[in-house]
């Protein structure tokens, strides 16, 4: 038995290692090497209740913070599994050599947004890179043994789904133009939908959203596409947004806007308990609100000038280097101009608590899947969700795996992709209308503009991408409330009747009760 994994970031590596530990072989298929995966870019840390900071933290606290941060739209059973397994996952990484910050009490943990306890283990602001390095080394050992077989520079060309059963994949070698068909079960770990927002996101646009679009095309259910997280502290650099990690605020960074000529630390005044560490959806919405006030200037700043030199040296040195490089500004000496940027997709491929999709023998994990985060993700839960989700998906696939067929290799036409110009057109429409604050008029205008692109779609990849963009907008139209990262100016409050998942199947949109098949 050999299981196919699409994607070689944290979720894909975690799935491959879990399979290998149980003697199950896998094909690890990715468009690029793991060293370039989105997971490498995660900065701030990974959450787990280790209770090393003397704050009497508990797993129940972690569960409640995650559910509250997601405005109770996440699956409680899934979140419980995530949080209960988090301490062991972090300890496993420590044993693998990840150089977490430590002291005499063990692994040091920092404050992160939406959490009342210090719960985020970290390696300066390069945690994702360190976790990936550990798993890449672990995978190489299994590669030598032939248990894991890597297929880098391969992209998914076709999902073979018939009668709602996944029977395998065809992938295309970007170097040779040759296609390879693998039978058997498939785990998707293809990352978020950054390719719908080129130039507007902190994530890599190598995560093209094509895999998610193929799922939609094949009748696989998607969920909660309207929940797009805008990270409050990003800066514009050529081609994308650069993340200023939440770690900066966790260490004491403060947001302000100039009001009537003086700095106004608005988060501290409006939210005296968590202050600048409110959940990201709240902070981003407040930034939009204050910069719209006539007495305020239209720029928010992140003030880190009060941080000790020791903090910069031991915890934020790489963040300082990034800001110096891109802005020619030392954040230890001057406030940094920041604005919200698209950072994470809570929605994606629908999965149940065992990471099954709506198609048999097809599983999904990591940011491409809709799990754990509800209406808004807490910082520090993404790395955790990817690792844990990969483990769960692998365990489920092992139990239910379909027989794999003989590999077929043949020359085919080169794999067609959406052109950069077409992607830019889609991105501009979504960026203009699927904003932090949105309304029915905005969303209908987005659909009208996407419809005008229909005749310009020149290949199957562009047709699929357009369908996914419309599904995202239709999900936002269907949810007539404001919850987490989805904020409607025409429906400004939470509607208890909408505490359900938004499901998109083909062109149909409907609600499903949470944790209901």
Question: Would you mind describing this structure in some detail?
Answer:
With 517 residues, the protein is α+β, with helices and mostly antiparallel strands. The protein has two domains: 2-193 and 346-408, 3-Layer(bba) Sandwich (FAD/NAD(P)-binding domain); 232-340, Succinate dehydrogenase/fumarate reductase flavoprotein, catalytic domain (Flavocytochrome C3, Chain A, domain 1), CATH 3.90.700.10. The chain has 14 helices and 27 strands. A six-stranded antiparallel β-sheet has the order 15-14-19-18-16-17. Strand 16 (254-259) and strand 17 (262-264) form a beta hairpin. Helix 1 crosses helix 11, helix 2 packs across helix 3 (76-95) and helix 12 runs parallel beside helix 14 (460-478). The radius of gyration is 22 Å and the shape is globular. The mean pLDDT is 94.
Helix content: 25-40%
**Dominant shape:** globular
Structure classification: alpha+beta
Q: List the domain count as a whole number.
A: 2
In which order are the strands of the major sheet placed?
15-14-19-18-16-17
CATH class of the largest domain reads Alpha Beta
Number of helices: 14
CATH fold-level name of the largest domain: FAD/NAD(P)-binding domain
Tally of DSSP β-strands: 27
| Residue fraction in strands | 15-25%
Largest sheet: 6 strands, antiparallel
Which value, in Å, is the CA radius of gyration?
22 Å
Name given to the CATH homologous superfamily of the largest domain = FAD/NAD(P)-binding domain
Mean pLDDT: 94
Distance between the termini: 28 Å
- Low-pLDDT sequence parts: none
CATH architecture of the largest domain: 3-Layer(bba) Sandwich
């Amino acid at each position: 038995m050999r299981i196919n994994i699409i994607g070689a970031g944290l979720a894909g590596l975690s799935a491959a290692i879990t399979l290998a530990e149980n003697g199950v072989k896998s094909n690890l298929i990715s468009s690029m090497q793991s060293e370039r995966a989105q997971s490498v870019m995660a900065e701030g840390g990974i959450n787990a209740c280790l209770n090393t900071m003397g704050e009497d933290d508990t797993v129940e606290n972690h569960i409640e913070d995650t559910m509250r941060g997601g405005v109770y739209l996440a699956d409680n059973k899934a979140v419980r599994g995530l949080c209960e397994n988090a301490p062991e996952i972090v300890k496993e990484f420590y044993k693998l050599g990840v150089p977490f910050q430590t002291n005499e009490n063990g692994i040091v943990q920092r404050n992160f947004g939406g959490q009342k306890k210090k719960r985020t283990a970290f390696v300066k602001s390069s945690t994702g890179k360190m976790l990936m390095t550990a798993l890449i080394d672990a995978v190489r050992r299994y590669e030598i043994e032939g248990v894991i077989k890597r297929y880098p520079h391969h992209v998914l060309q076709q999902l073979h789904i018939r009668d709602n059963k996944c029977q395998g994949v065809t992938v295309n070698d970007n170097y040779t133009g040759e296609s390879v068909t693998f039978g058997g079960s498939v785990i998707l770990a293809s990352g978020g939908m950054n390719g719908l927002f080129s130039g507007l996101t902190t994530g890599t646009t190598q995560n093209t959203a094509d895999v998610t679009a193929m799922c939609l095309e094949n009748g696989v259910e998607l969920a909660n596409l309207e929940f797009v997280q805008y990270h409050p502290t990003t800066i514009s650099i050529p081609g994308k947004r650069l993340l200023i990690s939440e770690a900066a605020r966790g260490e004491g960074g403060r947001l302000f806007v100039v009001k009537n000529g003086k700095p106004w630390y608005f988060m501290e005044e409006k939210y005296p308990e968590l202050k600048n560490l409110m959940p990201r959806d709240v902070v981003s919405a407040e930034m939009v609100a204050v910069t719209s006030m006539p007495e305020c200037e239209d720029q928010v700043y992140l003030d880190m000038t009060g941080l000790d030199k020791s903090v910069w040296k031991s915890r934020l040195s790489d963040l300082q280097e990034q800001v110096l490089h891109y802005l020619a500004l030392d954040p230890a000496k001057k406030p940094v101009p920041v604005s919200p940027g698209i950072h994470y997709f809570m929605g994606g491929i629908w999965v149940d608590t065992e990471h099954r999709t709506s198609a048999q023998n097809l599983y999904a994990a990591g940011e491409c899947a809709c799990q754990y985060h509800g209406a808004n993700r807490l910082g520090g839960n993404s790395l955790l969700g990817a690792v844990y989700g990969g483990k769960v998906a692998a365990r489920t696939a092992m139990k239910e795996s379909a027989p794999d067929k003989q590999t077929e290799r043949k020359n085919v036409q080169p794999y067609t992709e959406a052109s950069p110009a077409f992607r830019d057109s889609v991105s501009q429409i979504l960026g203009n209308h699927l904003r932090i604050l949105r309304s029915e008029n905005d969303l209908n205008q987005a659909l009208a503009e996407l419809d005008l692109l229909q005749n310009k779609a020149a290949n199957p990849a562009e047709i699929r991408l357009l369908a996914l963009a419309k599904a995202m907008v239709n999900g936002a139209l269907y949810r007539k409330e404001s919850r987490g990262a989805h904020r409607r100016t025409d429906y400004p409050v939470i509607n208890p009747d909408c505490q359900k998942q938004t499901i998109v199947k083909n062109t149909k949109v409907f609600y499903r009760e949470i944790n209901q098949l």
